[in-house]
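Sorry to interrupt, but I need a hand with the structure work. Could you write out one complete protein record for me, on any chain you like? Could you add the entry underneath, on a fresh line?
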Amino acid sequence: MEYSEIIYLMSMEITEDDIGNQISSSKTSKKCYAKKQSIRTNEFYNATMNGLTPSCEFVIKRLNYSGESELKYNNELYSVIRTIDPKNKFDIVLVCARKIGIKEDEPSE
């Protein structure tokens, strides 16, 4: 398995204002190498039944993932719908849905 695609795992930094309300201040990104693969038929069917539209899966090393809910690939944002633990304990599969109409510039590392 070759990890040749570059993705950016996105996480929100949450801070508090003067009176203690939590506000999201900025997004941080972490560069990661991944293998992109298509959604399996049963995965797509089960997600569609729940109102979700998965578009692809990314396989990454488990050490790189810290529960991020978004990622960026080719200047397009994706939501992480769910994760799958494969038999290989060193990897994790991120099932993603593309966020339509949202594009951003390449993040800084």
Summary: Residues 41-49 form the longest helix (9 residues).
